[in-house]
Design a protein that fits this description.
Blueprint lengths: L2 H22 L2 H5 L2 H21 L3 H17 L3 H15 L4 H17 L3 H19 L17 H18 L3 H15 L6 H18 L1 H14 L7 H14 L3 H14 L4 H11 L11
């Protein structure tokens, strides 16, 4: 069967699936196997989606997978719904990147709700890659200053990239995390609306450097101070300098005291706590906690 034949068959399957969904919602349909009809419609939409894929009609494939996903949600089949949204996202990547991101976000919400955080993280990375390769060239983007708002592609791309950096550091892929934190920090430090966040990104990049090598961390802090003078006066930079000094002296107690002092004003989240513990464990004789 050629592509046009596959498309015709897919369109016919969609029409039949639509009828089953419609009849399942009627009074009699609900009494006589409503859910069974919805399950059959799910299968039809998925089959149609795969036929559209074979015909390289990516938008139609994505829409059909979305229809299946919504019906799976109606049936409380969360795993199948998430899988269908991912399939939809993968199809839309070839035709409509923004719609691909919408579908992947829907899948992430479901996986997060199910406690499947590793899979959710994987799809966050996919979204970041779509932004990077399809929607936004981070290096060329000029941010719009006063017109900035949370729904801009630039802002969304940064959020996704920062997720990638966070997961990369947790997976000990420090170089990748450093590159992203430096990139986003550099892009935000000159923006009046975003520059306050730059110190956080340089702080996190410095911690990743620190885990790898103390000298690298020292050089990185000096570089960030030169690039972004406001970083020098930040509590984050002052903490880094205290930690570097404590580490150089192999003084675990001074390291812990510096962390406690910082935490008493700015509560450490789980990511920062994890990174700081990894650094502290490189001090000889350390017991491996921050208490």
């Amino acid at each position: 069967m050629d592509n046009s034949g596959k498309e015709k068959e897919a369109i016919q399957l969609i029409a039949e699936a639509d009828k089953k969904v419609k009849s399942s919602g009627s009074f009699l349909g609900g009494m006589f196997g409503g859910n069974h009809k919805v399950e059959e419609a799910c299968e039809m939409y998925a089959r149609a989606a795969n036929m559209f894929k074979m015909a390289k009609n990516w938008s139609a494939a994505g829409n059909a997978f979305c229809q299946a996903a919504r019906l799976h949600m109606q049936l409380q089949n969360k795993h199948d719904a998430a899988t269908s949204f991912v399939d939809a996202g993968n199809a839309f990547k070839k035709a409509d990147p923004q719609e691909a991101i919408n579908c992947l976000n829907a899948a992430i919400d479901i996986y997060t709700d199910m406690g499947r955080f590793t899979i959710a993280a994987k799809h966050h990375i996919t979204i970041a890659e779509v932004y990077e390769s399809e929607l936004v060239d981070i290096e060329k983007v000029q941010y719009f200053g006063h017109n900035a708002h949370n729904n801009s592609p630039y802002s969304s791309a940064n959020k996704c990239l920062l997720k990638v950096a966070s997961y990369s550091a947790q997976l000990e892929q420090y170089q990748k995390a450093i590159e992203i934190y430096e990139q986003v920090g550099t892009n935000t430090m000159d923006n009046p609306l975003l520059k306050y966040s730059a110190k956080e990104y340089f702080f996190k990049a410095s911690l990743c450097h620190f885990i790898v090598d103390e000298l690298n961390a020292k050089l990185a802090v000096e570089k960030y101070e030169e690039m972004f003078p406001a970083f020098s006066d930040s509590r984050e930079c002052k903490l880094l300098k205290k930690l570097l000094e404590a580490h150089e002296e192999q003084n675990a107690e001074a390291f812990t005291d510096a962390v406690k002092e910082f935490d008493s004003i700015s509560r450490l989240d789980q990511w920062l706590t994890t990174m700081l513990l990894r650094i502290k464990k490189t001090i000889q004789g350390d017991e491996g906690d921050l208490k």
